[in-house]
User: Fold these one by one.
Assistant:
Number 1:
Amino acid sequence: MIALLLALGSSLAYGCADFLGGLGARKAHVLRTVMVAAPVSLAVELLLWPLLGASFSPAALGWGAASGVASAAAFALLYRTLAIGPMNVLSPVTALVSAVLPVGVGLLQGERLTAAGVVGLPLALVAVVLVSAGHGAGPTRPSRTALSPAFGAGAAIALQLVFLHQAPSDSGVAPLIVGRAVSSAVTLAAAGLMHRRLGPERPAYALSATTGVLDSVANLLFLLAARSGDLTVVAVITALYPAGTVLLARGVLSERVHRGQLVGLGAAAVAVSLLALA
């Protein structure tokens, strides 16, 4: 139950971070938003060091660095995916891949599900797809050019979660610090190379900084959840993060929540209840 609650908190924090990051990206180039969010996120994780401890063993360094590379790749591929479109098809593909791959890893490592889990896990995967799908614009089919980065983004997100899960359980926040430092360096280097394409607009500093804080909170809650529960369950619950984005968009921007998303939210509630019983 503790792992489930932590995973739900991680999902909510990821969803809020995505929402605020999206608002920030409307005001300036997305890399400008990340240039603010990434250092703030790293600062938060450094502040957590004295509270939660950090052991920079070779394994913690290796898995943390791997998660940082995967995080940077996920960022690049995700925004490439959304730029190509159609979002209502590609976003569920990314979310589903990001959930399914950690489940496969967990099962291969010997995790087992009860009867309630056998029902709840597939239902949660369906909820991930429904919640992340927007309003369809007709029978638009994505091209292979669009599907490739969509699968890649989902795989990169999944690898980031798997790598954090593989880090030693006694390493504290060391994997998070190393991962954030690596992903920040990669992102800032990309921004430096592309500085002429970023435009003159200044980032929304408050939104960007809050995004960084929420992203750190989400990573920490996932790490704690993965250390106290099964990756198969924790990863799927975390992948429900689009629900937070959808609800915030409804409350703040008055965006319409479509029927399929409402069904997805209901399916998610049932799935979480079943997984709690499991």
Number 2:
Amino acid sequence: MLSAKSLFREILDNDESFRLFCSIAAGGESQGGWENTRIAALVPESERDLAPKIARHGADEDKHGRIFNTLMKKRGLTPVPVPPDTDYTMLLERHGIGLAHARLRADRPLTVADIVIYLAHSRVTEQRASEQMELLRRHFADHPDLGRAVRMISDDEDGHLAYCHEELLRYAAAGHGRAIQRTLRACALAEIRIYRDVSLAVMAHMGRILGWPKGRSALLAFAIHAVYGYERAAGWRRMVSLRMPERRNALGGPPAPAPELA
């Protein structure tokens, strides 16, 4: 029977597929860490109170990248180059989602409009990250090697999502509501397309490593396209709604240290 748990189990039990999985995850988290660190440094003077939260977001993402690298090291594995067609964060940037890296490398303060774009982009991508980690947490929270890492990263992603909701609602109340909704919708529609393409690419790479038969690969591709069809029709709306989270000021303190995995 093909299920999410059996699929992840097969990927995690094979050294080469596990190494690719962790390398992709570590690369994306590290890239997110860099982006948030640069945004925190470039926050306009009028929004400086937000800078520590953005920096905390970046520190969390860096920590997640280190965790995935530690998981590989624990199995005697080293990272592999991330295939370009699986690089979710870079594909988003290439399609104009979020703040361009050229803008972040410039030593010029961002604007309030830039911060709104950053938060809207983060609200969409953190929705995806929170859902993915919840799936892993559901199946592997008690795993002897992955459990502690999965639980910590899942908690962090939930906090990032709560932070995005709270800050976007604050900006909406300050008169940026239309810009927020317009940006959220554009980001969500682009993200679901890129997520589909990345998912297809990741499964193709995993299939080659694990020697999946053509029928199984075709079934997985069909399932990915079906998810995209649902998200394109209606599912994207969950990424653009805003509500005040139960967890307030989620990024108001220092990041929790990475769990001891050795």
